Amino acid sequence: MLEAVLFDMDGVIIDTEPFFLRSESMLLKEFGVDTELEYHFRYQGTTHEYMWETMKNEFNLDAPVGELVERANVIRNRLMEEDGLQPIPGVIPFIARLHGAGVPLAIASSSPLTDIHKAVKALDIEKYFSYFVSGESVAHSKPAPDIFLDAAENLKANPENCVVIEDSRNGVASAHAAGCKCIGFRNLDFPPQDLSLATVIVTDFSDLDAAYCRALID
Fold it and tell me: What domain of life does the native source organism fall in (predicted)?
């Protein structure tokens, strides 16, 4: 039986991926590094610290990881303030349908907890969720299973009875490693991620509800 649905945030609930990609590219350019947009897709679903530590080593960036994370956050926040946060089309009605059916919901995101709370308040969806967990709060970030195992435990749910909503290769791999069923969301506005480990792949949320999620478990 379906015991909980666990949502990633960036690229699933809010359309933040363009802001992440632009801020990463802009900061690298300050160090004289030009990258193709596609280069950054590999880091979707990972923590900021992991991403910048990897890029620092790859490009020999002359700055501490913490400074790189903070500078990228400043750029990204400025871009988001200029353009405003937008939800992924159809996802908020989907969340409301699940909540109305009594399904416990959590957000399990690699983003900092402050960013998670800021986003859900901006979209007025905090009321739908019983638990929030950040990649900062677990020992190992996605694609390790820690974040979804943590969310399931705190919702008193068995991982195998949870459905995860993810949009990235790392996130889908994390859900798979946790033993959860996974709905892989493919955003047609971006080059496709490898979502092959997902239980099912969708391109919109308009037809999804609690019955759909239950069918994945049953």
Answer: Bacteria
